[in-house]
Amino acid sequence: MKALIPAAGLGSRFLPVTRVIPKEMLPIGAKPALELIVEEAKAAGAEEIVIVISPGKELIREYFKDDPSISFELQTEQKGLGHAVFCAAERFRDEKECVLVLLGDALVSGCQASSEMVAMSKANNGAGVIGLERVPEEMVSRYGIVKLDDSDSKAPQITDIVEKPSVEEAPSDMAVAGRYLLDPQIFKLLADQKTGYGGEIQLTDAIRRLLEKKKVLGYVYPGKRHDIGNPKGYFKTLEAMNVNG
Ligand code: G1P
Questions:
Q1: Alpha-carbon span 113 to 118, nearest angstrom
Q2: Nearest protein Cα to ligand 1, atom 9
Q3: Is the pLDDT of residue 115 over 90?
Q4: Ligand 1: distance of its center to the CA of 81 in Å?
């Protein structure tokens, strides 16, 4: 399996430190957050990992330079998460299996999120899987929000997905939480994806089109997602991952 880690965002919610240190390289104990994410991808079976960085984040390339399983692609324009993922499309051209996508500013504690998603996919004929977390109603407008089918199965199917909906428009309170296992058709869909929320090319919008072609299941984490992209989220992450004491 191959994995893709978008780590090209500007880190504007964590200035000024992100002028020189990419948010993904902030320490969680002695390791940069991104190393924990790479470990998670490898534990889930990723043999090759492509990290998408932006100019100015060369520190990431420098840090991983001795790991032959990791390579890099550059996103030179800030056009959104979907565009960052598309920047690595060529690297997945011949891929048949689902690609594991791990957002570089999201850590998950309390479970082996990616490994559990891979197991769910295997148990369901290679279906796509998206990691989900229930969020309070007033927070739905900060996330991609999914609609699940009515079955009470442990592997519910995602029937719709919307990027950052208003409370009124949100199809549920189940938020996309930083981990995706996606059919490689996603790259073809991203190639002609129109801009969406915030004038950016959204991964969520391409996934919405993927749902018409491929089964994608929802995996509600038993653990918790942490956003290290801002100071408050970062300090909460340190607390939750118990690296303070
Ligand atoms: C991105 C995705 C969103 C998802 C979130 C957390 O948003 O676009 O769908 O819910 O990550 O995984 P961002 O946090 O980059 O605004």
A1: 9
A2: 144
A3: yes
A4: 8
Q: What is the pLDDT of residues 184-205, one digit of tens each?
A: 999 999 999 999 999 999 999 9
What amino acid occupies position 100? L
pTM, rounded to two decimals = 0.97
In this structure, are residues 9 and 22 in contact, taking their beta carbons and an 8 Å threshold? no
| Residue 137 CA, ligand 1 centroid: distance in Å | 16
203-207 contact pairs (CB < 8 A, 24+): 203/80, 203/81, 203/82, 203/85, 203/101, 203/144, 204/82, 204/144, 204/161, 204/162, 204/163, 204/176, 205/82, 205/163, 206/82, 207/130, 207/144, 207/161, 207/180, 207/182
Model pLDDT for residues 8-17, shown as the tens digit of each residue: 999 999 999 9
Residues touching ligand 1 (Cβ under 6 Å) are 81, 103, 106, 143-144, 163, 175-178, 203-204
Give φ, ψ of 144 to 5 degrees.
-75, 135
CA 204 to ligand 1: nearest atom: 9
What distance in angstroms lies between residue 144's CA and the mean position of ligand 1's atoms? Answer: 6
- Calculate how far, in angstroms, residue 145's C-alpha sits from the geometric centre of ligand 1: 10
